Amino acid sequence: MTAAPDGVGLLRAMLRIRRLEERCIELYSAGEIRGFLHVYIGEEAVAVGVMQALTPEDDVVGTYREHGHALARGIPARAILAEMLGRQEGCSHGRGGSMHLFDAGTRFFGGNAIVGGGLPLAVGLALAARMRGERRVTACFFGEGAIAEGEFHEALNLAALWRLPVLFVCENNQYAMGTALERSESQTDLVLKASSYEVPAWSVDGMDVEAVAAAAAEQAAMVRGGGGPCFLEARTYRFRAHSMYDPDLYRSKEEIARWTARDPLALQTAVLREEGALDDAGLAAMEADVAAEMDDAVAFARAGTLEPVEDLERFVLTEVPAA
Amino acid sequence: MTDVTAGTTTYRQALHDGLRDALAGDERVFLLGEDVGRYGGSFGVSRGLLDEFGPERIRDTPLSESAFMGAGIGAALGGMLPIVEVMTVNFSLLALDQIVNTAASLSHMSGGQFHVPLVVRMTTGGGRQLAAQHSHSLEGWYAHVPGLRVLAPATMDDARWMLAGALRDPDPVVIFEHGSLYAMEGPPPGPGPVDLDHAAVRRAGTDVSLIASSQAVHVALAAADALAEEGVSAEVLDLRVLRPLDTEAIAATVGRTHRAVVVDEGWRSVGLSAEVSARITEHAFYELDAPVARVCTAEVPLPYAKHLEDAALPQPRRVVAAVHAMGLGG
Ligand SMILES: Cc1ncc(C[n+]2csc(CCOP(=O)(O)OP(=O)(O)O)c2C)c(N)n1
């Protein structure tokens, strides 16, 4: 297990995600990032809290809103931004873009833009771990929208039936694009749903990073101990529109304001100040540090190279090195 | 009627107008799919319709492609005229079982007792740097299936009027809207209807036939412009209807030009271009002065990086090069 999370480290990890994505938005507006861009702003506490409970040997499955998952997992900001700029130095060689970040080194299995598609994948990863006698846990992130897909039900059933080591992390940000949870589920109590598969399940305040970290640690320990899968619902909110294309016509200003008042970064900053663990100077130093990291990452991405077009048809099949 | 009668309009608006007309014209018509209502349609085609027709008829569904496709099929059996929107053809694979094993098969399996007057609309195609899980052109997969009619509107008229025809068809119809065409501007569509059986010559020519559908028609037209500057006269045939394929029109254009290049955003292997090429062999072989050529998408899941995506997709210059390789122009 990793050491108990330190509060300042948690804030720092969230700040890196926030600032990275702010850069992404700028780069998108400047036309340097293209395609679909889904930012995680507001939800940082979930990725950061859960990642605390994992070891480098564990597996992580993300969604298409995965910049935060990827960065918190340890993929360098450089490799993430280079990917979004379509450079071959990117973590998916420029072929995946924002929605398809992958990194074998950190056991980060995507970057999946098929809603719900990651859940069966996580079940398979966990099955493999079990069959090979490896003690890894597979952490699988997905939105509450994915719960309506058949994949959710099939995956939970299988994982529970076979008692597989999967930590299912539902990022309940209340909306699937423009569709609110109560418009997509007859039963909106997601914990109850997961429980119906005999999976230990509970909710946590997804804006409170220490609470997420504690809950994830408890569940990861249960999963690691051979108890089968667990389900953690993190109640959170995305502060921005679904994607850069979304005019965001389905949410009220009041609702957004209510949630942004519980910004996970601000909450954690307040906790740390109260504890005396962080003062203005410490915060300013952290900001400066992160800004420098992101400056460097943007410069790295911009200086990256384009893969030669002659290589277009590479990577479709496994490349076997010549004997 | 919300026809734009002056100025220009967009492909998206033409689709919207067709949809609105259909809803206004028949109480049995309703739209269902992910984010068609409150969000306004993932590509904006249905924006405003929820206010006008209400949530019963502009029906947001949960993320459950198989379930809501099946529900559409059931509603069609039950006497309604559902239009099911699937965000992209990539996601329609989660509904493929319902479309192929139920919608397309029911009439035959029931000995003609039941019919599924369902219309499915989905986005297809690349060119917007959306990478592999949002960019594929799988029209050929659907065109493979007996029991379906498969349409690919490439023009303002077809975008505006194909839906009306599809709703009159007693069998399931799948309409592919190309993501890169939504913003296409042009003169407002003419009065309908359009037929759902025939291909259309979009540009007449005498030296070579460029046979295409959907966005590839525009690639072919651009290539034809470039070829014209070299003195090569290219005819552009827009297939429009991918199933049933208009074999006569294909044979006829080859009969006029004696050379053919099939331009298809699908992959070459076992794809739509292979079928068109085979029909030419079967029906116009002795008309040919050169082997049929094909310009298709490279055999890769579409990459994100723009230069690689451009290299993967059919481009006018690749069509021109294919014509040059036949000994014309250059
Ligand atoms: C199978 C499938 N259907 C539809 C979509 C289009 N789509 C992309 S994101 C999204 C909303 C998903 O919401 P949720 O799972 O709650 O995640 P969030 O965006 O809130 O993080 C939809 C409908 C898709 N990518 N995949």
Automatic annotation (TrEMBL), chain B:
Stated name of the protein: Alpha-ketoacid dehydrogenase subunit beta
UniProt keywords (A-Z) are: Oxidoreductase, Thiamine pyrophosphate
Instruction: Show the Pfam families listed in the entry.
Output: Transket_pyr, Transketolase_C
Task: Give the required cofactors.
Answer: thiamine diphosphate
Q: Which GO terms describe its molecular function?
A: magnesium ion binding; oxidoreductase activity
List the SMART domains.
Transket_pyr
Superkingdom, natural source? Bacteria
Q: Which parts of the sequence belong to the Transketolase-like pyrimidine-binding domain?
A: 9-184
Which organism is this entry from? Baekduia soli
